[in-house]
From TrEMBL, chain B:
SUPFAM superfamilies: MetI-like
Main location: membrane
Pfam families: BPD_transp_1
Family: Belongs to the binding-protein-dependent transport system permease family. CysTW subfamily.
Protein name: ABC transporter permease
UniProt organism field: Shinella yambaruensis
Location(s) in or outside the cell: Cell membrane
Residue span(s) of domain ABC transmembrane type-1: 80-286
CDD domains assigned: TM_PBP2
From TrEMBL, chain C:
InterPro entries xref list: AAA+_ATPase, ABC_SmlMolc_Importer, ABC_transporter-like_ATP-bd, ABC_transporter-like_CS, Mo/tungstate-bd_C_term_dom, P-loop_NTPase, PotA-like, Transp-assoc_OB_typ2
Record's subunit section: The complex is composed of two ATP-binding proteins (PotA), two transmembrane proteins (PotB and PotC) and a solute-binding protein (PotD).
Catalytic activity field: ATP + H2O + polyamine-[polyamine-binding protein]Side 1 = ADP + phosphate + polyamineSide 2 + [polyamine-binding protein]Side 1
Broad enzyme group: translocase
UniProt keyword annotations, A-Z: ATP-binding, Cell membrane, Membrane, Nucleotide-binding, Translocase, Transport
Residue ranges constituting the ABC transporter domain according to the UniProt record: 6-236
Lineage of the organism: Bacteria, Pseudomonadati, Pseudomonadota, Alphaproteobacteria, Hyphomicrobiales
Record flagged with keyword Cell membrane: yes
Role this protein plays: Part of the ABC transporter complex PotABCD involved in spermidine/putrescine import. Responsible for energy coupling to the transport system.
Protein name: Spermidine/putrescine import ATP-binding protein PotA
Enzyme Commission number, as recorded: 7.6.2.11
Length: 347, 300, 355
């Protein structure tokens, strides 16, 4: 009897240990890698953490410097990351190269998404706008209102700035040249380059980083430019006499994808479903102003103040003025366009 | 042998012992060089071999010359020419500004030279990024220099000093000057001042002595300064990116883009290999040229 | 060839508190071979540099053929110079080095070719005209430097310790060659050296310098045999000094009055010494005519051409004598007592300063 008791206790104790271990195992640790910096901090607070909590996984963060790092992870055969946050065209390229698991659209709902906002292997989680911004001390009476005005150097003299990377700039050029913003793709690259050729002489600076673009506008080094909405917002907050418009702005987006062979692929699908859900997306307009949700249903989850709606690039009012970038087109054409574009800049 | 020998005729005369002592010394000397050799192999030869290997494959991993064929496209040819133009201009300006400074340094007393040398080396103590931004503050449209010139009434319109080739060259010359001055100064210090007295004694005026004796003798130092400056310029990334306003498409920018924007290691490798090969050829050419110059300069 | 006359008057040059030249006056005759001899720091090189124009004195006059040169820049002085380490231009070959002064004087090419080859022939270097300087030996460089210095027929040839970097045999050979060359070309030569043997071999006259002053200026034999003070005597040869006492009109060594050839160099006051050189001492002598010096043999050193015998005298003094083997006297052993003889004509009493 005594021995039986002892045996029972042993079994019970063992079971206790086992069940405790089982609970711990159920709480997957999901590793998400992003570009780091303030953006990643904001993304975690606003959309990643709530989604992780909802999926019942613990969130661990890593940083990377682009698709090359992702490629190294996957090619190693046993990636330590589960999910990566990338630019849309990189997601598209990675998907084509087979670096990602297909997304389970049974688990992930695309209701409320623009058709360009997701692919077989990736889905957009946040948007940004490339907008037209200008110095109000230079354009006091009549402000530029569209890319046509940006190209109109007689009516709006002054130095301009565009990005050194052709993405969004090619779209802007076509809109200025009279192409309807909803029928841009496939891009007529020759026409876009011809349009850029016309404005080139008035482009004082081709900017290559977000920080640089903000500084140019703040210092008055240029009078109007194409710039990220988030950057121009900080310039305005700093008190510079600057305004911008969402009219004809290009909507780009960041996206999530699951690495091929990711250790916690199933949890990752649940996590991504949470990130793009209207409830989580609805946190973006207030917590990350000047960035936007990718799911338009986010604006139906609750009532937002007029200020928030005016700021958010994806509010129903603002999104109508803009057009979505086609990540798949850029995936296939980036390198060639880049060559022509850099030739145009340097000649 | 007429020497008196005390030893037996068959004495080995310590042949084996001496030989092994020689071998031991050789081993110690090559042992001393070993860490450096390993380091060179690790940080130079192996990565380069890897780069060269990578450049032979296309994105899909098949053996192909595609990465090199790409280099013939106008964007890359243009960028290649820009790179060499910028490097050449910067090097030439560094020679123009650096030679007199190095000459002054070499003629000063040791104490004065040391103080002045600190000012030459001072820029090394601040980051290139900080210096480049400082130039931006000075040179931009509403920058210090334009404000000053405008308020003095020298100009009516701000000068385009930055976000173009001019700004890039100014910034790069500033960064590169010490690299030209230091080897040049070292070689000038090595010129025996008595040679200039000898030239004067032969009847050479100070300017003739400088041109016919000092200048040719400073050529090796100038050549190494030029080579160092030129090669460093070829790989410049930060300063052209920040001060060039996107117009100065350096080869290094193309390499960086190939890696970070397109994640195309094959393309980046081919770009690197091409740059390396051309650089080696240029260096060899510069060396041949200055060798010829420094010897023929003295011929009547 | 033109010959130059040089007249230096009261040349002063100070570096801070150090007086490199302290009022040097010197007249050099046209065609003369004059040597400036002195220890390092005596001012001999500074004086040469003043003449060449590399140093500007604080005060003084330098006339070359009656023309004031004192502020004339070196390249307008038309003086040839051979530098201590030759100062050949390493980026030029032998021919170009020698041609350089002619090229600067705008001599036409055929004449340059002829004169350079003539000069190289004189120094036996014509077969090496195409060599690079770095491919020459020390002696060869010396000859090229010499050819470069005289190829343009300067009125004055200056040489700053030109042989000091050569080994002993080559140095002695070059001394004779330089002397011959001077006879052949006949140009005024000012030669700086710290080597008394070299000065004695080559010079018409020697100026001995110390502390920025010329101590004695005379023909070699006089400077050697009749030095005018202890410094000059000590600088020439292996001179030993024995203190002597003044008694009335004569001098006394070890209680014996000395028989002297010359007492002019001894001032009437202050200390006085008998100058004793090994080659002037004799193994045999005459007690009536010569001075007797007694001592104990300290050691005997074999020197090839002779044995040098050191002899210790009372009062801790020491003299030396050579034993060549030709003497009737056998070679003494250490510890032997010796009596040596100094002939009256070789006996000189000198003071610490020139009278």
């Amino acid at each position: 009897m005594a021995s039986c008791n002892r045996a029972f206790l042993t079994i019970a104790a063992t079971a206790g240990v086992l069940s405790f271990a089982g609970v711990a195992a159920a709480q997957d640790v999901l590793t998400v890698a992003g570009f780091g910096g303030n953006l990643q901090t904001d993304l975690r607070k606003t959309i990643w953490q709530p989604a992780a909590d909802a999926a019942g996984v613990e969130l661990r963060e890593e940083t990377h410097d682009g698709l090359a790092a992702v490629r190294v992870q996957v090619q190693s055969g046993s990636p330590t990351w589960d999910v990566v946050h990338l630019g849309a065209d990189e997601c598209a390229v990675g998907g084509k190269e087979g670096l990602f698991e297909p997304l389970d659209y049974g688990t992930i709902s695309t209701k409320g998404f623009d058709a360009r906002g997701y692919g077989e292997h990736w889905i957009a989680t946040n948007t940004y706008s490339v907008v037209l911004a200008w110095r109000t001390d230079v354009y006091k009476d009549k402000a530029p209102a569209s890319w046509q005005d940006f190209w109109n150097v007689e009516a709006f003299p002054g130095r301009r700035a565009l990005s050194t990377y052709p993405q969004e700039m090619m779209e802007i050029a076509l809109i200025a040249d009279g192409v309807d913003k909803d029928s841009l793709y496939p891009l007529d690259t020759e026409r876009a380059l011809a349009a850029l050729e016309k404005i080139k002489a008035n482009v004082g600076v081709w900017w290559s980083s977000g920080a640089q673009s903000a500084q140019l506008l703040k210092d008055g080094e240029v009078d109007m430019m194409a710039i990220w909405g988030s950057r121009v917002a900080s310039v305005i907050t700093d008190g510079a006499p600057v305004k911008f418009t969402y009219q004809d702005a290009i909507l780009g987006y960041g996206c999530l994808a699951i690495l091929k062979g990711a250790p916690h692929a199933a949890s990752a699908q649940k996590f991504i479903a949470g990130v793009v859900s209207p409830d989580v997306q609805a946190r973006i307009p207030e917590m990350m102003p000047y960035y936007g949700p990718t799911n338009s249903l986010a604006f139906e989850v609750k009532a937002f103040s007029p200020e928030v709606l005016a700021q958010s690039n994806m509010s129903p009012e603002n999104v109508k003025k803009q057009t979505f970038l086609d990540a798949n087109w850029w995936r296939d054409n980036n390198e060639l366009v880049r060559e022509d574009y850099s030739l145009l800049m340097s000649n | 042998m007429t020497l008196a020998m005390d030893g037996a005729p068959g004495m080995p005369l310590n042949r084996a012992m001496l030989k092994s002592a020689r071998r031991r010394e050789r081993r110690i000397f090559s042992g001393l060089a070993l860490p450096a050799l390993v380091l060179v192999a690790c940080i130079l030869l192996i990565p380069f071999a890897w780069l060269a290997w990578l450049s032979l494959f296309d994105a899909a991993g098949n053996l192909s010359a595609q990465n090199y064929a790409r280099l013939l496209r106008p964007a890359y040819v243009g960028s290649f020419l820009t790179t060499f133009k910028v490097a050449g201009l910067v090097t030439a300006l560094c020679v123009v500004f650096g030679y007199p400074v190095a000459y002054l340094l070499s003629q000063l007393s040791a104490r004065a030279a040391q103080i002045l040398l600190v000012f030459v080396i001072l820029p090394f103590w601040t980051s290139v990024l900080v210096r480049t931004y400082a130039w931006l503050v000075l040179l931009q449209r509403n920058g210090v220099i334009n404000d000053w010139l405008l308020s003095m009434g020298v100009i009516d319109e701000p000068l385009a000093l930055v976000h173009n080739l001019t700004g890039t060259i100014i910034g790069m010359v500033h960064v590169m000057l010490p690299f030209l001055i230091l080897p040049l100064y070292a070689s000038m210090k090595a010129i025996d001042p008595v040679l200039l007295r000898a030239a004067a004694n032969c009847g050479a005026s100070p300017s003739q002595a400088f041109r016919q004796v000092f200048l040719p003798l400073s050529m090796p130092g100038l050549a190494s300064g030029i080579a160092l400056t030129f090669v460093l310029c070829l790989g410049f990334y930060l300063t052209p990116a920040l001060l060039g306003g996107g117009r100065v498409a350096m080869w290094s920018t193309q390499i960086a883009d190939a890696v970070s924007k397109f994640s195309n290691w094959g393309a980046a490798s081919a770009l690197s290999v091409a740059l390396l090969v051309v650089t080696a050829v240029v260096l060899w050419g510069v060396r041949r040229l200055t060798d010829a110059l420094s010897f023929s300069a003295g011929k009547p | 060839m033109r010959s130059g006359r040089v007249n230096l008057r009261e040349v002063h040059k100070a570096y801070g508190s150090f007086r490199a030249l302290d009022g040097v006056s010197l007249d050099i005759k046209a065609g003369e071979f004059l040597t400036l001899l002195g220890p390092s720091g005596s001012g001999k090189t500074t004086l040469l540099n003043v003449i060449a124009g590399f140093e500007r004195p604080d005060l003084g006059s330098l006339l070359v053929d009656d023309v004031e040169f004192i502020t004339r820049p070196p390249h307008k002085r038309d003086l040839g110079m051979v530098f201590q380490n030759y100062a050949l231009f390493p980026h030029m070959d032998v021919f170009s080095n020698v041609a350089y002064p002619l090229k600067l004087r705008k001599v036409d090419r055929p004449s340059i070719r002829r004169r350079v080859m003539d000069a190289l022939e004189i120094v036996h270097m014509q077969h090496l005209a195409d060599r690079r300087i770095t491919a020459l030996s020390g002696g060869q460089r010396q000859r090229v430097a010499l050819a470069r210095a005289f190829v343009f027929e300067p009125r004055l040839l200056l040489m700053d310790e030109p042989l000091s970097a050569l080994d002993k045999n080559l140095r002695e050979h070059m001394q004779i060659e330089l002397k011959r060359l001077h006879r052949q070309l006949g140009m005024t030569t000012i030669y700086v050296t710290h080597d008394q043997q070299e000065a004695l071999t080559m010079s018409d006259r020697i100026a001995v310098l110390d502390k920025g002053r010329i101590i004695q200026l005379d023909v070699p034999a006089t400077v050697y045999d009749r030095p005018n003070c202890k410094f000059v005597a000590g600088f020439m040869g292996e001179t030993r000094f024995l203190p002597v006492e003044r008694r009335d009109q004569t001098y006394v060594l070890d209680g014996r009055p000395l028989r002297l050839a010359d007492t002019r160099a001894a001032s009437s006051t202050g200390e006085a010494w008998l100058m004793v050189r090994p080659e002037r001492l004799r193994w045999q002598g005459d007690a009536d005519r010569d001075n007797r010096i007694e001592g104990r043999v300290l050691d005997v050193v074999y020197r090839g051409d002779c044995n040098q015998v050191s002899v210790s005298l009372p009062g801790g003094h020491e003299v030396a004598i050579r034993h060549s083997g030709a003497e009737r006297q056998p070679l003494p052993q250490p510890g032997d007592t010796l009596a040596l003889w100094l002939p009256a004509e070789a006996s000189l009493v000198i003071g610490s300063a020139a009278p």
